[in-house]
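User: What would this chain look like folded?
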Amino acid sequence: SNEPDFLNVWFGLAKVGCSVAFLNTNIRSRSLLHCFSCCGARTLIVGSDLVDSLDDILLEDNIQVWTMRRHSEHSKVHTLLDRLDTAPDQPVPAELRATKSLRTPTLYIFTSGTTGLPKAAVITHLQSLKAAAGFWAFGGTEDDVVYIPLPLYHSAASLIGIGGTIELGATCVLKKKFSASQFWNDCRQHDVTIFQYIGELCRYLCNQPKTEMDQDHKVRMGVGNGLRQDVWREFLSRFGNIKMCEVYGSTEGNLCFMNHIGKIGTVGRSNLFYRLLFKYDM
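Assistant: Here's the prediction, encoded as structure tokens.
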């Protein structure tokens, strides 16, 4: 789930040359086993708050399970925190990742599975670096504070959100789970300047009771996708002059469009490099 350990595990495994598969915490049984088989994973690292929700079928399928705890009541679940206390502090040997390149897979991010079982989108190191440039392309700086209420197992929060924050050298406010009633209080408390959204998130905010503090915040930019025109207009009218930056694309897609100009209702433009590299008709 959304917690610092998610990032620790992700970047730690990347540093030793491992590919990582992000799993939706809501999938179970057959869909979960399918995700393991399609990307060849044999090890699961699970947050301490999710251990009790593990399926027995997973523990019986020769999948090694680790958790961010010091002790576990499950005999087949190994613990990590106690081992970190005795871990060596020497630098990770570079030869462990010597065979990796920009075109080597670093992540597997799964589709939602609405038309069948979840499908793994293969993310290379190059793709992850390109996604991390999103905030910068929209005008983000190192002085920004980025609010991420979306689940990290999706590419928006992980690649664009976390990756973009690190690329800028900015500050991240990671929310465990989106809350419409707490959203603006969080933004005021942490001096948030950029937030991530999906279209319905903004609708939920607009559906909250109006208050005299609706425009009492430092938010200057929202980055996301799927924002309907009517919600876009209502959001700006109520919460102030916030630059809404739409990204139109998919995790498994080859390119995306970015609405830099803030024009309501457009999917945006393809960048110069895409126009040079890919042939397509509009």
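The longest strand covers residues 105-110. If you want, I can go into more detail on any region.
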